[in-house]
Amino acid sequence: MAHTHAHTHGPAPDVPVRSTARLILLGALGVVAVLTVVGVVAFWPSHTPHPSGDTSYAAPGVTFPRATVTKVEKACPENYGGGEGATCGKIGVRVTQGAGKGQTADITVPPEVFTSGLSKGDTVELVRTPGKSGAAAELSYFTIHRSGSLWILFAVFLLVVVAVARLRGLLAVVGLGFGALVLVKFMLPALLTGESGTGVALTGSAAIMFVVLYLAHGPSLRTSAALAGTLGGVGVTAIVALLTIHHGHLTGVTDESGAILSTFAGNVSFQGLLTCAVIVAGLGVLNDVTITQASAVWELRAAGDDMGRRELFTSAMRIGRDHIASTIYTIVFAYAGTALMVLLLLYYYERPFLQLLSTEDIAEEITRTLASAIGLVLAVPITTAIAVACVAGPRQVRRSRGSHAG
What we know:
This protein is α+β, with helices and mostly antiparallel strands and 406 residues long. The chain has helices at residues 19-43, 111-115, 147-192, 197-217, 221-247, 256-264, 270-281, 283-303, 309-338, 340-347, 353-356, 360-390, 394-405; strands at 66-72, 90-97, 104-108, 123-129, 138-144. 62% of the residues lie in helices and 8% in strands.
């Protein structure tokens, strides 16, 4: 199925707009901007959230030094770790940074570490436990040090974006950084202090979208129409998520991480946290489809002087339907990819498939997928209608072009 994108990468076509519609749209966005600021102030955590219990990652005296792999034994085919004196399932390491620098040891590693391609010269992080009664400290495997490869990947990503999209791509990356800042500095602390998950999500999402859209696509009425459509889609997603989570009795706690968090952060509403997760998860896709629809309306109006508003809406929606079909695939397969291990595990359960759908893990993923998809689908006609209402009709377009020609 075709995936039609109508993003405009240069200046928007010179299309006359309706002054009344422009005032209404910008006025409405101004109200939303004020409400967003009020929301940030209201939900801003009054104190730094602290856990109710001990969250120490390790026992006192335990450190995490960095070491270089000096040798790699073969993986043990059956016996995990090989046991005492085994010559398989182990690697040799020499501590290069942190406590115990220069210390060497042979340590056991999980079988999957061998299959990942660990080799001599790689860097690993260890757990160094102080010995009892003056005994030497013990070293054990913690993880492979991956920050170097991740930084390389980020540098390649940045290089590719700037090389292909140039300034607009760079601005998009800056907007992404702003979104991360809002998430870390506002949304996470607010959620940990017990603020409404829905309120925090709507406020943070609006703040992110205001900055990201205008930064990446420039301040224009076309961008404003896309922003209004995005906010409409976010609102629809929030409503669907709230109703589904409430009526489906979803708890928001599906794994060990949720259980651990519940012991440290007693104020957190996990149903609110799930609602927030559903809303935030759909932001990127919403941004994509709304910008496409607004651009499509502007381009169609620039190309068709005689096109009435109904015809303009219908033509833009043909583009939107193609985009909806392809983007729904994106959402579904993206969630399927993140839940692949759960799906593989459930494949072995001897229970009817329809019964498995009601389990907490699967039900949450279905809720995330379908709530985001509903918001996405409805954002297309919302954005299209707003954009069509903003651009001038065929008579005004011809009059405007006639005056320019004269």
